[in-house]
Amino acid sequence: MMSKEPEKSKFAFYWAASCGGCEIAVLDINEKILDVVAKVDIVFWPVALDFKYKDVEAMPDKYIDVCFFNGAIRTEENEHIAKLLRKKSKVLVAFGSCAVDGCVVGLANLWDRETIFERAYSETPSTNNPESTIPQTSFKVKEGELTLPEFYDTVKTLAQTVDVDYFLPGCPPPIPSILQAVEAIFNNNLPPKGAVLLPNKSICDECPREKNDHELSEIKRIYEIDDDGETCFWDQQVICMDPATRAGCGAQCPLVNIPCTGCDGPGPRVTDQGAAAMSALASIVTGPEVIEQVVDPIGTFYKYSLARSILRRKVRK
Fold first, then answer.
1. Which segments of 45-195 are extended strands (E)?
2. pTM, to two decimals
3. Please, what are the domains in the chain?
4. pLDDT tens digits, residue range 167-184?
């Protein structure tokens, strides 16, 4: 009598408010995806296969073994599906910076829905909208009623919406870390709940550039220096988010002569990534006038983490 093959794990992937790069990162594991497919059944992946929400709604609770959820919570639909997939999944992974920290999507928290709609549908040079029509949650036509999900004033992270088991940040997550996470799932070797599935150190620990701990007498943009490819960007008067950012990417940006912008999110023991970076800056500048030279402080220090930060958003009046 032939032995019965072990039942495959059930995986799900979902794309909320994000650019889609995390979906591509899943494919960037290249031939390793064949090993994954051999061990799992993908029961929900609407960007790649024909699945409907009703398919998930029909699943028993905890039917999905692991769900990789990428994207921030921008709309009513995003929140509804986050709560649905939380109910249907044994393990929910916040996958990528948008889900973990809010990412670039979270910079919209500097405004509210009304301001964003005004800009998008009236003010942009390419917009031709003489009647100032903006999206509505419902609209009646002769065939019936058309609906759209509500667009929220505030972008939220996945963990600000539902309970999350693990976090795998990055824009997108580093490919080796994706593979390590999948292998840990297959081997039932995941860390305690709530863990970040990246190394417990900062990118400075991975960066091979020489650090001389010079004071900053001025702040320059990357295009204003003749980078030697070997010296720490801070020592070249350029802001780099390495000290406040979690490792895992292998310092890919500094290796190709670009300062880190912080996409792996807050480093170990860092509560607020932007505050940590500003603290590092304040400790080495020669005077307060130097700090005033920072162009776009929010975009520099909170490019990926505003929605998760202590600030979260601009105050609404």
1. 64-70, 73-75, 89-95, 138-141, 144-147, 151-156, 166-168
2. 0.93
3. 9-104+153-186 (3.40.50.700), 113-150 (no CATH), 203-301 (no CATH)
4. 999 999 999 999 999 999
